[in-house]
Protein: Allantoin permease
Organism: Arachnia propionica
Amino acid sequence: MSSQSGTQAGAIELTGIEVVGEAERTARPRQLFLPWFASNISVFGMSYGAWVLGFGISFWQATLVVLIGVVLSFAICGVIALGGKRGSVPTMVMSRAAFGVQGAKAPGIISWLTSIGWETILAITAVLATATVFERLGWVGENKVLLNVIAAGVVAALIVLGAMAGYHIIMRMQSVLTWITGITTIIYVLLVVPHIRWDAIMAIPAGPPAAMIGAMTMVMTGMGLGWVNIAADWARYQSREAKGAAIVGWNTFGGSLGPVVLITFGLMLAGSSAEISEGISNDPVGALAQVLPTWFLIPFLLTAILSLLSGAINGIYSSGLTLLTLGITIPRHRASLIDGLILSAGTVYVVFFAENFIGPFQSFLITLGVPLAAWAGIMMADIALRRKDYDEKALFDGAGRYGAFNWTALGIMAVCCIVGWGFVVNGFAEDAAWNNWQGYLLPLIGGRDGVWAGGNIGVIFALILGFGGYWLSCRGRVAAQEEQPTA
């Protein structure tokens, strides 16, 4: 199952979900910084400032929530990335060790849906930003619908083509995008600093601990937990000699640096202007352009789209790999094309038919955040329990040491989902009515109108129960697997 394609830097990647060959494992931990930083440096991150303050907490409470939520969530990604280095395979192939070769298809479906959802959200944001900025420039008259159609088509095409190119081209592209996005974002900050009003920011009243937990849960699901299902995809190219602590550190640093700075600035901007805060619900990036001078709108638009495309390309790349783990036998680049078509359909729906952006977005984060948190907890426990590299051959053989199904792990994940969904609630019921079935356990802690109702602590419960349940019930199974000789 080892890849012998000998893919060179700058060439289209032919490696799918098979084991990366030793000749291609030349990456160093510091090289993980670029893809993680570039994927999370988008100005879209500033929009979280309005959403965090929307939980009814003060600026200083929100700043603490952002710091803890962002860093902790990307640290989880760093731990999961260790599996890529140990197994030389994508994230969802690596999870076969915990769930069984066939059993891993269950969390694989969740992973695929999550990646598709994120790619679509980023594409939608890019399309909405394009329309908003063009409208401010006076380029949109009665042809706004046509402009949205063209923008949606161009955005989707760029995302799919980038993802089809693969690992090496993406890495080179990220190094360029990082500089462009970083410089333009700094200019944006300098231009809008005069609009910051500290008197308004400091006047925001403090909120209860439950509101802080709810805000932190949203930050975690929107940041690191949104990427955790693909965290090992880049690390599978790491050298065998790469230090585990360095992999975790560079993942965490690269993923966290941009969001911590951007969301904190977004808190200042949203706290200073009620107009911006309200506009972000319908057009996250376009609303940020309201305070910009006209001459900077085009550079802002281009940079915003490039940064959004960067994250979406990484997502499409990994969702294509996940599709292959579900048993679909097609080349990786064709899997990315299939995901791109689905992305396009989702973009069209939200841009042309949904009433706003934030309702479907938050509902998506919470609903898939619960099973994803449960899976992450299980995988962190599995990685922590193992002392040896994964048996690469057994990851593709249901008769091998990992077996076809680990019913214990699947049962733990099911319990985590039942508990987790019971303690979360859709805060925008009118905009995502299909998701109002959640929160059935909230009467245990005060009901849907209680202080903890908006805390969405079900995501945290799922993460903790997943880790603890697997650690306690599968220690013997892992130890027995470690004693078997590697094929």
